[in-house]
Amino acid sequence: xxxxEKTKKRNPKGIVVGIGEALWDVLxxxxxxxxxxxxxxxxxxxxxxxxxxxxxxxxxxxxxEILENFNxxxxxxxxxxxxxxxxxxxxxxxxxxxxxxxxKENVAWDHIPFTPELEKLAKQVKAVCFxxxxxxxxxxxxxxxxxLDAIPDGEGRYRIFDINLRQGFxxxxxxxxxxxxxxxxxxNDEELVAVSRLFGFPGIDLQDKCWLLLAKYNxxxxxxxxxxxxxxxxxxxxxxxxxxPKVTVADTVGAGDSFTAAFIAAILDGKSIAExxxxxxxxxxxxCTQHGAMPEIxxxxxxxxx
Length: 306
Prior knowledge:
Layout: E1 2-3, E2 15-19, E3 23-27, E4 30-34, H1 36-45, E5 50-58, H2 61-73, E6 76-82, E7 87-93, E8 99-103, H3 116-122, E9 125-130, H4 138-150, E10 158-162, H5 172-181, E11 184-188, H6 189-199, H7 206-216, E12 221-225, E13 231-235, E14 238-242, H8 255-268, H9 273-288, H10 299-302
C-alpha cells in the first residue's frame, strides 16, 4: 500500500475522507487527475481539513503519476496498489462545458480492499463523501460499506452520499443501501428524475421528491443542484435556494465535488446552512471557470472568516 499517513502533517481541524475512484480524466486538452472522491478530498483540504483520498491504483506509470500528483498537492491518501490497471476516463465536453464520460471497467479502483488501516481511519473521520460509481464492483462496494459502518455514531459526523450516477453503473439495491447509510444526500436534477423512476415515486415535482427522500431516509440534509437553474438545500421544515452565478465556463468537471467540499467545510467550521450553501455555490462557480477538476481555490473563498 502507498500512503502518506505518517509523512504529512495533520491539520487539527480534523480528517475528512473521499472514498472511491481515483483516476485520470482524459480531456480534449490532455489528461488531468480526477475521480469525484479525490476531487472532494483535494478541495476540502484547501479549507484547512485533512482531506484523505481512499482508493486503489495500478502498479503502472499512470498509478505512479497519481502518487506524484497527490504528493505535489500535499494531499494525503490511502491508495492500495491492485493488480489491475489504473483507472482512465475518456471525457468529452460539449459547447456549454458539460462533460460526458466513457469509463473503463475492471480497473484498480474497482478493487479497493478493506484493511485494518482503513478501519482505524474510519474511527477518526469527521466526514466522508462516497458515491455510487465505485460501488459497481462488489470488492469496492464491500469496502465502502465497511468503512461507513466503522465510523462512530454521534453529532458532528457526516456521511455524504454524492450519488454521482454514471452510465449504467448503479441499481436500486446499491442506491437503497447507500441512502440508508448516509445522513446527507447530494443529487442533481437529472439524477433525481432517474432515482424517482427507479424507486417508483409518484409524478410529483422535484421539491416534493426531495421532501419524500429527506423523510423516508431520515436525512439531516438534502442538496439538490440544478445547474444554471440554481440549487436547493432541504432540512427538516426548511428549504433554501441560491441562484447560480453567471460565469464564463471553461468546463464543469469537478464543480459538483468542490460544491460538496466547500459546503461540508463550512458546516464543520460552524457556519449556518445559509452561509455554507452560498459559499458552496460561489466556489463551484469559480471551479467552472477553470480547466480540470482540481484548480487552486482563491483564499477569498477558503479563509474561515470570509
